Amino acid sequence: MDKNTWFGFLLIAAIIVGFAMINRPSKEELAERQRMNDSINYAQQMEQEALRLSDSINATIEQSLNTTNEAEDAALMQQQLQNAYGPFAVSAQGEDKETILENNLLRLHIANKGGRIIRAELKEYKAYGDTVNPLTLFRADESDLSFTLVTNNNRILATRNLYFEAICPNQQNVIMRLHSENEDAYIDFVYTLPEDAYMFDFQIVPHNAHLVLAQNANSLEMQWKQAIPQQERGRKFEERYAHLQYMLVSGDQERMSEAKHDNKRETAKVKWIGYKDQFFSTVMIAEDAFLSSEFESTPEDALSRYIKTYSTKTSVAFDVTSQKPIAFRYFMGPNNYNLLKAYDKNAENEAVKLHLQELVLQGWRIIIWINQIFSFPVFDWLMRYGLHIGLVIFLMTLIIKLIILPFVFASYKSSAKMRVLKPQLDAINAQYPPEKMQERQQATMALYRRAGVSPMSGCLPMLFQMPILMAMFWFFPTAIELRGQSLWWAEDLSAYDAILTWGHHIPLFGDHLSLFCLIMTVANLGYTMVTMQSQATDPNMKFMKYMMYLMPLMFLFIFNDYAAGLSYYYTISLAITILQTMIFRWTTDDKKLLAQLEANAKKNAAKPKSGFMARLEKMQQEQVRMARENAKAQAKKYR
């Protein structure tokens, strides 16, 4: 190899080494990673120890049942409990009782065992197919929240295995107290449920915890797992909008995969963790922060009654010598954009904002902007008048159509100009056969220039409409206001409106046929046929013409599983478009328009060509010249 080659290899090596040194983690980052790994390993050891202790207690109970001396049984039991649970042996046994907190919106069942919420009901909502019972976010063993305690005699305990006592319970407040052998040392789980609210407070309040817990404890490990039951009619659609989401203290938000098993370790501090379904969420918010965290999201089998299973292993800062509470807030309620956004209404600065409205999927960046400043405010404004949801969607569609009316009119005007020029375009196509494509294009462009017509003028207005159409595509499937609302044959506008169902799944289509989607497809196909017949098209662009007919049929496959409210919106939008087109045609005189274009042609013929048009025409002429020379060269080659 020559010296240049060696120099190249050395330069590449230097770049690689330099890049590695630049991206090498700092000592603080390495320490944080090590602390995270130690924390996760520590939590796993705690889980194993808790299981071992539970087995030990069960074995002790079984052994005591097989003995005959009651005094020995009691002594042996007490000794085993003391060995297994240390200072919390007094809380190792108890009664399985529940305490209920409720307001007008929410009912919570709190169990003595674990001091945790074992059932959450939303009073104003019903699950699909159940018209009697309130919607249940989770029940019994579907949700499990546990904290890990390390005692002063090195016992590792999980709060899920300990029994709490309900102190001063009422409908809005309860203290779940975990007693120890020292009457002055205990831990309180305090639940406070305000009136007419989906968000409530949860505090862990230690009292002289240093007397019974390990002195070197500086964090409290937490394990939270929850199975998400199917609540809606369309499972496939519900799975698409169900995911685990969390927000970092920095304000950035992360979302786990909706379609596949996903797990992630997060070293940055986390503000809140959300277990989200299509229309409902359970969110746990730390007043300070969750420290290093590990998240996992698992889709369930299609035959299961559950959509996803989410789990989190994390920790919060904890000073065993302090009486300071560890403060959390829970949100258990609907994914209503305006409701979630209102929690930041009185926020003093950006750092304390929760941005829970991000749980409502709104699409890409420009689409999010349209939904935030238009879709949600207008929809909410119309809903305040108590109108039927079908009328609300109709009025919202009408407002959208009025906004984009100038763009639609510009598009139709361009289409009309192309239509009246069709005889002259046909003459150009007849004069120049397909073999002379360059000449045909040059003549066509010259015709457009003389008449003052731009082929792009019909496309650009349509492009301006696309963001609004896409914003509606994201808005309606996530609008909880449509859930449970009926319109004509559709029982629930947030789900598909099947009029025909068969017993097997057809790939790319499903096991049903939605009527609103079918009406939209038929109307769209008819409108396309009428539009294409009235437009001037190039005979050589037949494939594009067939694609225009194929698109409405593709909509049938795309929207068959989507919310009936979305198909209803597109149907209304298409009906208004057809009406607009008819009005435009009635008010457009083709003869006058053609005379105007001919007058433009005379004026433009006398004007000098613009610099751009001159350059464009020169380029076209040069292309024609080169094409001719290439053809002559090829002809000479084969002589």
Overall description:
This protein is an alpha+beta fold and 639 residues long. Helix content is 45%, strand content 23%. It has a nine-stranded antiparallel beta sheet, with no helix packed on it. Helix 6 crosses helix 11, helix 10 crosses helix 15 and helix 12 packs parallel to helix 14. The longest helix is centred in the N-terminal third of the chain and has 39 residues. The model has no long low-confidence stretch (mean pLDDT 79).
Quick rundown:
By secondary structure, this protein is α+β, with helices and mostly antiparallel strands.
Q: Can you count the beta strands?
A: 21
Fold-level CATH name of the largest domain? Beta-galactosidase, Chain A, domain 5
Strand order in space, largest sheet = 7-8-9-10-19-16-15-12-13
| Mean pLDDT over the residues | 79
What's the structural domain tally? Answer: 3
Question: Major sheet, described briefly?
Answer: 9 strands, antiparallel
What distance lies between the first and last C-alpha atoms, to the nearest angstrom?
49 Å
Helix content: 40-55%
Shape: elongated
Q: What is the rounded Rg?
A: 35 Å
The first-level CATH class of the largest domain is given as Mainly Beta
Proper CATH architecture of the largest domain: Distorted Sandwich
Low-confidence segments: none
Give the helix/strand class.
Answer: alpha+beta
How much beta, percentage-wise? 15-25%
